[in-house]
Write a structure and sequence with these properties.
Poly_Biosynth_Transport; cell membrane; transmembrane; Membrane protein involved in the export of O-antigen and teichoic acid
Length: 474
């Protein structure tokens, strides 16, 4: 139950983070339009590609610190390696700044270096907190960063700045949040030994491809789209991606919470407990994605019109991306289990196949079908990732038990919810407030039905109530 409450606390922080991200995207879209949002999105895509090498290091920090031995040395060594690699990459970006500016469509290469440096520091601090099993606190620091970003970016927009101001606001929020995270450490960073640096490197040299898989899933479509479509369409695509990602928040919370626990169990080869925790996590992986997909089929155009009328043309993109994110959420749980078992070599093979497939599909399908091709490429890549990671994990500890009954009940509750939304939509006025009301009505209906249908979900929900340890709730 401690794990459940940690996941619930982390999930709460992710809801707050998602709300702040939604508001930031909403204000940028409403105040600056789809074109400016698209340009800023391309700039952030460049940032995430630059982070691929350092993301391997931050994954190694999380893993080695979570093992509970010489934590201070691994924190210090990991942060030092990240800063050194970031410095070298920053010099490279500045040397080719003109090419970066032309690709992004704005003169922001120097600002991207500042943003990149702040992001590397923030990621290292966040990984260190998670490795110390402070997952909920790491989530809280992320909320501080996202809320700070929202305030900073809305402020610069009101002052008359556009893309450059958005990048600066983003960098400032990351740096402030990183300083806050450092203050929450239980361990003091210290110099590592050569063996400890080698241990970080050994894990990181495999896990960097896992970070590349993650970045490609989130940013390959945007990266390729920048060569073929207008920035306004990229802005609409980004809104659809943001909404789809919101529905995987609980999956992310469960994955982040389970990783240090599975890592600890993996050192003792306690595979039966790993199976148990994975099954528990899979119950909640699609719990929001499934109703979100059904709801988007009915309310997608209305929901996107809240941003601006031009955004409603992304309704089909939204549905495809929600499905893709849902499938990938299951695959991510399996890959996280593989990494927790200290088998980054297996994850490396899976991620390598994903990277090659995702890159190929994006180039081919975007050239053939435009932005719809990008969404389809993302969905097909997600299917491949999930299949390969399932069999990869099966080869290590046996086939994971899939909670098919619980997932089936989630579909039943979602379909019943759809009937309610469809009926209400026929009498609801075509206003933004009515659209929000329909979303809320659908969510309440789904949760009530699922809790009523699924004893397992109901038991977990009741157990997460703080007073349930003292009072018997029925």
């Amino acid at each position: 139950m401690r794990f459940g409450r940690t996941a619930a606390a982390y999930f709460a922080s992710q809801v707050a983070l998602s709300l702040a991200g939604f508001l930031a995207t909403f204000f940028i879209a409403r105040l600056l339009g789809a074109a400016a949002l698209g340009t800023y999105t391309v700039a952030v895509a460049v940032l995430f590609w630059l982070k691929v090498p350092t993301n391997g290091i931050t994954a190694a920090i999380n893993k080695r610190v979570s093992e509970g031995v010489d934590r201070g040395a691994y924190v210090g060594g990991g942060l030092g390696l990240s800063i050194a690699v970031a410095g070298a990459i920053s010099v490279f970006v500045l040397a080719f700044g003109g090419y970066v500016d032309r690709y992004v469509g704005a003169g922001v290469s120097g600002l991207i270096v500042v943003l990149y440096s702040a992001n590397v520091l923030f990621d290292g601090v966040s990984a260190s907190l998670k490795g110390q099993k402070k997952v909920a606190l790491a989530g809280g620091v992320s909320v501080v960063e996202r809320v700070g970003r929202l305030l900073a970016q809305v402020g610069v927009i009101l002052l008359g700045y556009e893309v450059a101001g958005l990048v600066v606001g983003h960098a400032i929020s990351l740096f402030v949040a990183a300083m806050l995270g450092l203050a929450l450490f239980d361990v003091r960073p210290r110099l590592p030994t050569r063996a400890q640096l080698a241990s970080l490197f050994d894990y990181g040299r495999y896990s960097w491809l896992g970070s590349l898989q993650s970045q490609m899933f989130g940013w390959m479509d945007t990266t390729v789209l920048a060569f073929f479509v207008a920035s306004s369409l990229i802005g609409i695509y980004e809104v659809a991606w943001t909404l789809a990602s919101t529905l995987t928040l609980i999956s992310t919370a469960v994955q982040q919470t389970l990783f240090p626990e599975l890592s600890d169990l993996g050192t003792d080869d306690r595979h039966e407990r790993i199976h148990h925790f994975l099954n528990e996590g899979l119950v909640f992986t699609g719990i929001f994605v499934i109703p979100g997909l059904v709801g988007a089929l009915i309310l997608g155009p209305r929901l996107l019109r809240i941003y601006r009328p031009e955004f409603s043309q992304g309704a089909t993109i939204l549905v495809i991306l929600i499905a893709a994110r849902g499938v990938a959420a299951f695959g991510s749980q399996f890959v996280s289990g593989i990494n927790a078992l200290d088998r980054p070599d297996v994850a490396f093979t899976i991620n390598g196949a994903f990277v090659l497939t995702n890159l190929s599909l994006n180039v081919v399908l975007i050239r053939a079908f435009g932005w719809h091709g990008a969404a389809v490429a993302t969905g097909l890549s997600a299917c491949l990732l999930t299949v390969l990671s399932y069999y990869g994990l099966s080869g290590l500890i046996g086939r994971p038990s899939i909670p098919a009954r619980e997932i089936g009940l989630q579909f039943v509750a979602a379909l019943a919810m759809a009937l309610v939304i469809y009926g209400l939509q026929s009498v609801a006025p075509a206003t933004h407030y009515a659209t929000v009301g329909l979303v809320v009505a659908g969510a309440v209906t789904y949760v009530a039905l699922l809790v009523g249908l699924s004893p397992r979900v109901r038991k977990k929900a009741v157990a997460l109530v703080p007073l349930s340890d003292r009072f018997a709730l029925t």
